[in-house]
């Protein structure tokens, strides 16, 4: 009897261990699926927020303008810390909205899309309403500030950092709002993982790239002082290309803002969304239909973004003028 009981006990233990192994495999598979879902959602969110990144990069790189070369990286690092603090506020706020007032996600996303379009249109308005001499005068003022020994450069840097962090807060809010719209239907744990992942990736990526951008001219200058003629030619090319690179980045960022912002707005308005779908179906019969099926929604989203940005800017400008201020001068 004792031997039989022992065998039964061993058999029960073996059965339990087998069940544990099976449950562990199931749990591992579920974890792998969750991890894969998080990875996919993070990629989708990163693609949707890419429209903000070009503007984010250009704006933050421009914020360092006027800072002495030796202080550029410390200033970028200070702004990066401020950006992480912004996201430490915005991510819990976004999760709270998703948990307690999920109906607010779509309106917030629409507001974020409208703001992207407004910001892009405001950049265009500034570009066409300000002459090159005005821009040259602004750059000359920055140079004079740095050269003036009577200016408190510590206070000047602090003002630069505060302004950059304020700008980052708005851009970070746009990124978090777009990301939240992407994962709004996902379980809470996945929302936390994706929002946190995007916050960290965007901050490290943006400010790491900004640090590289602001040091491009220094790299070019360092290479131009080398004894090798190839290095000197490369350095001279980098120095000449750096301003054009900044302009190209700004243009690409503005175009992406219309594409992404317009896409958010058209997706949120059923009539526009179905209209774009009908247009895509119509061009699917054209020659090179695959190309037109890609270009048509992009162009229509950009057009919608430009129109929306113009309307919002007109409304904001009207309010500003009624209160004695003007956004576009």
Instruction: Tell how many strands the DSSP assignment holds.
Output: 0
Amino-to-carboxy terminus distance: 98 Å
Output the number of helix runs: 10
Pick out the low-confidence regions.
30-37
Return Rg in Å. Answer: 26 Å
The averaged pLDDT comes out at 74
Strand residue percentage: under 5%
Give the structural class: mainly alpha
Largest beta-sheet details: none
Gross morphology? globular
- Number of individual domains: 1
- Helix and strand sequence: HHHHHHHHHH
Helicity level: over 70%
Which features does this protein show?
mainly alpha, 329 residues, 87% helix, single chain
What this model shows, in words?
The protein has helices spanning 2-63, 72-100, 105-129, 132-147, 153-183, 188-214, 216-224, 229-268, 270-283, 289-322. By secondary structure, it is an all-alpha fold. The chain has one domain (47-322).
Structural topology:
Elements: H1 2-63, H2 72-100, H3 105-129, H4 132-147, H5 153-183, H6 188-214, H7 216-224, H8 229-268, H9 270-283, H10 289-322
Helix pairs in contact: 1-5, 1-6, 1-8, 2-5, 2-6, 3-5, 3-8, 3-10, 5-6, 7-8, 8-10, 9-10
Brief write-up:
The protein is mainly α. The protein has helices spanning 2-63, 72-100, 105-129, 132-147, 153-183, 188-214, 216-224, 229-268, 270-283, 289-322. The chain has one domain (47-322).
